[in-house]
Each structure stands twice: as structure tokens, then as C-alpha cells.
Amino acid sequence: MTGEWLDIGWVDEIPVRGSRTVQVTGGDDIALFRTGEGKVFALLDRCPHKHGRLSQGIVHGGAVACPLHNWRISLTTGEALGGDKGCTPVIPVKITGGRVLICRTGALQAAA
Amino acid sequence: MTQPQEHLVVIGNGMAGCRAVEELIARDPARYRVTIFGAEPHVNYNRIMLSPVLAGEKTFEQIVINDAAWYADNGIELVSGDPVRAIDRAARTVTARSGRTVGYDRLLIATGSDPFIIPVPGKDLPGVISFRDMADVDHMLAAADAGGDAVVIGGGLLGLEAAHGLTLRGMKVTVIHLMPTLMERQLDEAAGWLLKQALEARGQTILTEAHTAGIVGDGRVEGVALKDGTVIPASLVVMAVGIRPSVALARDAGLAIGRGIKVDDHMVTSDPAILAVGECVEHDGNVYGLVAPLWDMCRALADGLVGRHSGYRGSVTSTKLKVAGLDVFSAGDFSGGDGAEDIVLRDASRGVYKRVVVRGDKVVGAVLYGDTTDGGWYFDLLKRGEDVAPIRDMLIFGQSFASGGGAADPKAAVAALSDTAEICGCNGVTKGQVVGCIAKGAHSLDAVRTTCKASASCGSCTGLVETLLALTLGDEVQAGPKTMCKCTSFGHDDVRREIVAQGMRSIPEVMQKLHWSTPDGCSSCRPALNYYLLCALPGDYKDDQQSRFVNERMHANIQKDGTYSVVPRMWGGLTSPRELRAIADVVEKFDAPMVKVTGGQRLDIFGIKKEDLPAVWADLNAAGMVSGHAYGKSLRTVKTCVGSEWCRFGTQDSTGLGVKIERMTWGSWMPHKFKIAVSGCPRNCAEATIKDFGVVCVDSGYELHVGGNGGIKVRATDFLCKVATEAEAMHHCAAFIQLYREQARYLERTAPWIERVGVAYIRERIADDAEGRDALAERFLFSQRFMQDDPWAARAGGEEREQHAPMAVFTPLDNVREMA
């Protein structure tokens, strides 16, 4: 996998209002989310609170609820919503011809 | 003898025109035959809710005020998509674009406002739009789908709403505002500044004191040029700089025009046969761009039409708004000036700002930002011109503090409101009107919504209406159940009832029909709705995996490090060498760091990785074991003691009965986790009296207990009844579970449920009513026909394999670290 954008797979492989992960050797996984509106986002798979796997949470609107303590994390900004404070790195994503691409440098920075 | 009906023709199918007709029908439905002309190809909708439609919080259907049936039921002819082009006052006819000409006895002009388009070069380029009707919203949605940059010209309410919607839709938005602060007509400088900060934090670019020089583009909009030479790229430009009364039609017809169509106190224009109402009129030198005055006008107008002539005296207005989700309120005059004194509370870190302007011990203006709870109270003080000297030192802290010395009792606050205080801003309903309609028999939120419309639009005043219900009806009404979550104004019980009553079949359908305020709910309502539908439609409903908590999606318990624990079912707590061997093998093969006996007499294998789960299940399945559902809102375990087979005190075969009960009940989904135990004698070694359903065997039969909880708040069971045979014990158990499944709220265990409904009710339904009990048990057993499938077997067989595997693997990180 080289180049600035990494090809991850088909958009359809991510369930609507669900997620899939990208395993990063030597680092934290990256979670890819697909919202009800069909948009795709990527976050480090690690809640800023107690490192819960965000990929296992319930996706609603533009946010995901962490499965451990129900923190809501914005898929757009990675920020904890509501009264909580904290931020999870966001990895730039784009969709080209139905394929999901994530930004290589973004992924490296986030997972390092 | 009936008189021939007079013909009332209404030009304008908007909020004012239709409201006027509604008011008229409420007074005398037979007096006029009504024809309504509308320029847009729609039924009557709530224009102020266009912003939520743009933001994706509502659909068009959800903002319809009067659907086609309303027109039909009231004999109103709707001519939509065909704007009126001319009025012939001499002939008393109107002619529409299509050439259709209709005669009138009375004509009502309710043409509203037109968006103001600033006359700059390029204003007519494709891609430059206003934000006024459904067509504009459709236009913006299409632009947002294509992505890119948007520029909104105008930092007033409308512009900011458009900017917010477009931001949510993924566009990069710049707001251009001519004035130094946003919403300067509603907010003072400080509040405007806070608003700007909040919007910038959401990624919008806000340019104040920015003058638009022109719109650039070759055949289509490409950007906005400012006077300082900056060009901001944009594929969409929304002009939202203001509105002006739509008077062209009236002017052409020769009616008297000022800033709007001139009307008297009865909304009659300079032609006695022609009335006008809404944003298009000028009354006593004033034009209004808000909803509340419009309702006042419509009431006066309808009174006049039926000969009651009450008269309109103008309106004092306040503005309570949610701008891009931020609460904003203003009322009266906050410009300061002679004799005006400011009382200000500022808490920047909480994002709260309050300013009350007092002149001669009277409130003359108020601006609230971030917390607008007391807006209605300040407005009420202002309208009544009350002397605030006695409460001046507490005024800024709000009503509950000023009237109760710090005890924040929301009920007292609502009770203290005057009858003219506005409760529902969307529909212009006062406290007096709500109380009146409750007194006339509207004893529920729904009834209030249908009779006086309070809380029927955006729902933000639902709490106030509920408090008024409680205050008016006293003990007759229990404090209404809390809403399911912030996505809806309905409580759990209402939702369950409506699902069954309306035969709803899917989560999106529930959200649509019950006016959910979010596009796809949240992590609390979705699992609840999924359960309610599953319970209501056994065998038919298609489970929504994405609405299940991770444990139920992965069929294992997530632990704090992201690994899972796995509990195979051991019927009644019994096991065998083969099962023990299989468990031991799994522990070794998958390096599980711990295995432990659970409180429910099962073995729990910890530390299994998500990707290994299918293989673990395959191995356990191979030894004949199935999922113990230790992760689910479902039947967990049936704990037993050894009973008569080995114990010297045992009276009955408690182990055998436990196994039978577990065989009957496993796999059933419930509102919460559910535990059962069977003890062989009153020594109760299986601790049956702290279980959701407990059986204590005695010499003469079986004592049944319900509603025990060993959790945070320990609760011993209530005695349900005593039965003579195993079969009866099982039958009662099935009926009780079904009653709980059908009636408890999601995430409500049996203990709080029973405390809520009373144990007498449970006895009545289960112990005393044999027929009802049979029906409940039958429904339970029917639903179990579809539930008793081992979820592990399907997954081990490869179903939804992708849930356990990463989509891709990315490996260069170690190299990068070396280089760095």
C-alpha cells in the first residue's frame, strides 16, 4: 500500500449505521463508519475516555456512542459531545468510484 | 332555511392564509365557501420549520400543517402551484397564471413576504438562491450533495439557519454579514459575539463588516467578490439579507400601500371587500416578520368575518429562537439610551449571557444567549409593565430564584406565569388558552396538541404543557412519564402503544410517524425501539443489528480492554466431562487469561479476541453447548440447588425443574436481563428470592416469587402465588415473563417495574386471571418458536463473518518509526 491515499475497500463493505476496522500493525486500529445518510468517516478506534473501541458503538446521526461508557464522539471532528471533553484523531477519508480511500499521512499520524 | 354561501377566496396558502381559514372554520364552518390559491405546489406547511428540513432533522411530511384531507374535509378548494396574477376589483374576480378566473364575495390577501435580493452584478446567475420556500431547500440539498463551498450572504436568523443546515450537510460555509455583529436586530453586541464564536468553533467562516460587491461566475456561480477585492469561491450562494412584504399584486389592484398593504383593526384593506393578513400587511405603521403577531391578526380577521369585530391592536413581539442549535432570546428594546439601565450576567465558559434592560423600574428589553429558560418570564414582565423594584436584585438570576429565593421549582415558575404568557411560540398559544383547553377536557399531552396546538410543532414547549397539565388537573394526572430520550417527546409507554395501535413495522416507520427529531435516533432509543418491535411482531420483525448494543451484536460481553468474555449455557447449572473438557480446551487454545464461575452457576471464559470469537463458538458448539446469552437483555440463567435427588432436605426435583424452565425460556429477548432460580426447599440455597422469577419448592408444591434483584439496590421478591404442579409453575413463569416483556419499559428490570405497577396488579394478571394467564403464556411460547436459535451456531457457520475481521490491514508503521 503506497501513495498518499490508501485504498481500503468497497463502501458497501461497511454496514449502514455501522462500522468496520482497519488493522494497523504496531498501532491502534482505525475505525471506518458509515452513517444513515451514507457518509463515511474514519476515526482512531479509541475513545478519548477509556480507550473503548468506537467501532463497536452505535452510530447515530453524525456521532458514535462508545460501547464502554456511552460517550458520544462526533464522526466529523472526533470531539466528545455533550458535557464530555476529549478528542479522538480523525483520518481524512474520500470515496472514489465506490471505493473508500483514507489519507496515508493522516492514518500514520493518528495511529503512531 | 340556509342562505347561499358567500365565496371567500384566499390568495396565499401559507401560514397566515391557512391559519385565517382555520380560525374562520372554528367560528362558523358553514358561513363561507373557501377557495385557496397557492403559488407553491404543496399543501400548507410550517415555513419556520424549513431549517430543520434543511438540517436533516425533519422531512417535508413532518412539517405539513394541514394535509390534503383537511382541505377535503372542510370543503376547501385548493389551487396549488398556480399563483394569482391579477385582481379585478370591479368585477370581483382573481385570475391566476394558468388563466383560471374565479369570482369572490370576499377576498383575503395573504401573500407574505418576498426575499430581498441585493442588486449586485451576477445576482441572477444559476446557483444564487434565497431561503424562503421548499423549492429553495431542495435546491440547497442538491447543491450539498454535490459538495463544495457555499457562501451565505446575511448573518441574520435566516442566513445562519441556512449556514447551519449546509454545514451539517457537509459543505464548507462562509457567512458574509454587512454589520459588525451577527443578528444585530435580535442580539446585542456581546451575545452576537458569543454566537459568532460558537459558529466558528463549528467550522464556519464568519466575515462581519463585509460588503458584497458582486457575484462572479461564467454561466454559473463560482464565487462572491467583496469590496476589498477578496473573492470567496462558492458553488452555491444563498442570499438571506431580509424579506419585504409582498405587495405587488395589491399595488397593481390599486389598494393603499405603505410599507405593506394598509389594513385597519379588522384587517380590512382600503377596499371593504378585500382583507389582508400576515407579513404582507402594515397595521398602525408596523409590519411584522414573526409568527405570533400573525396569529393575533388571524383571530381578529376571523372574528370580523363572522361579524364579531374584536379588532387587532398590534403586537409586542419577542423572539425565542434556536439558531443552529444555540438558544437565543430577545424582547423589547435593548438599545439602551436615556434612563435605561443594564443588568448583565455573563458566564463565558458556560456560554451563557443575559442582559435585562430596565427603565424606571420596568423591564423594557431582554437579551438571553445560551440559556433562554426565563425568556417568557421577562417578556411577561415587559408586556404587563410590572414594577420590578422589589425583585430587582434577583431579576437577572431568573424567575425561580426571584420568586422562590433560590428554590428552583419549575412547577412554581409555570404557576406564576400570567395567563397571557406565551407557552407555544410556534403556534402562538398562551398559558390561558392551554389551561382553558385542559379545563374543557384535554387531559393528555396528545389531547392538548390536537385541540389548541400547543406543543404540536417543534415540541420544545412540551415540558411546559406537561407542567400545566399537572397544575390544572392536580392529582388527577400523574407527572407524565419522561420521554424516551431527547429524540422524541413521547414516553416509552406511548411509543409501545402506538407501535401496536398503528401496526408499525420498522424503526424508520416509528421515527417517521411519531415525529422523531433526529434523523436516525440515538444510542438509547434505537435499542429500545428494536426491542419493542421485536416483542410486538415475533417472527415477522427483522432485527436491526445496528440498533443493538455491541454485546448483543457480538454475542459476547465486551470487557474494558476490548476483548470479550464467553459464557456457554449449562442447563440448570449442570455440566458434564465432555463440556468441561471442551471449555478447558478453548481456554488453552485461545490463551484465555482467566476462566471463572459466574454468580449464575456458569463458566465464563475471559480475554477472547473479537476475531477469535467465531472459532471459540465453533469449538463449544461441537461439544453441544450453545450461547448462554450472558451478554443480553434476555433470559440469562436458571440457578438451581440439588433438590430432592441428593439433598436430605430437598422436597422436589429443583434441578430438573430448573433445566425444564431454562429449556422453555432460553433465547427470549426482554426489556432487561432476566434471572430465574429454583430452590428445592425453604432453605433457598439457589437464592430464588432475589431473582426476577423464583421458585421455592415446598412439600405441598411450588411457591412462586417475582421481582427480586440482587443488583445495586437489593430487592427481595414479592410472593406471587402457590401452585401444586411443575406444569403450573412453568405456565405461570411463561405468563409472567410475557407480561414483563409486553409492558415494562426498555432497560427496566422487573423490580422497578413491579414497584411502579404494584404487585397487586401482577397478581391480578397472573394469579387471579386464568384466561389472561393462558393467553400470555401462549403468546410467550409462540414467540419462543422464533427465538430459540443459537446465535453462535450461525456465526460459527460464517454468517456476518465480516463483523469479526478487519476490512484491511495497514503495516508500514514500524518502518516509519525507524525512519523517525
Automatic annotation (TrEMBL), chain A:
Every copy of the Rieske domain together lies at 5-102
Q: Keyword annotations for this protein?
A: 2Fe-2S, Iron, Iron-sulfur, Metal-binding, Nitrate assimilation, Oxidoreductase
Question: What InterPro entries has UniProt attached to this entry?
Answer: Rieske-like_NirD (IPR012748), Rieske_2Fe-2S (IPR017941), Rieske_2Fe-2S_sf (IPR036922)
Is Plastid there in the keyword field?
no
Coiled coil regions in record: none
The yes or no answer to whether the keyword Iron is present is yes
Q: What Gene3D superfamilies does its record include? A: Rieske [2Fe-2S] iron-sulphur domain (2.102.10.10)
Q: Name one Pfam family in it.
A: Rieske
Q: What is this protein called?
A: Nitrite reductase small subunit NirD
From TrEMBL, chain B:
Organism lineage reads as: Bacteria, Pseudomonadati, Pseudomonadota, Alphaproteobacteria, Sphingomonadales
> Among its keywords, does the record have Transferase?
no
Q: Where is the NADH-rubredoxin oxidoreductase C-terminal domain?
A: 318-385
InterPro entries from the xrefs?
A: BFD-like_2Fe2S-bd_dom, BFD-like_2Fe2S-bd_dom_sf, FAD/NAD-bd_sf, FAD/NAD-binding_dom, FAD/NAD-linked_Rdtase_dimer_sf, NasD-like, NiRdtase/SiRdtase_haem-b_fer, Nit/Sulf_reduc_fer-like_dom_sf
Domain (Nitrite/Sulfite reductase ferredoxin-like): residue spans on this chain = 559-623
NCBIfam families membership:
nitri_red_nirB
User: What is the name attached to this protein's record?
Assistant: Nitrite reductase large subunit NirB
Nitrite/sulphite reductase 4Fe-4S domain residues: 632-768
Write out the similarity annotation: Belongs to the nitrite and sulfite reductase 4Fe-4S domain family.
Its required cofactor(s), as named, are: [4Fe-4S] cluster; [2Fe-2S] cluster; siroheme; FAD
- Matches recorded under Pfam families: Fer2_BFD, NIR_SIR, NIR_SIR_ferr, Pyr_redox_2, Rubredoxin_C
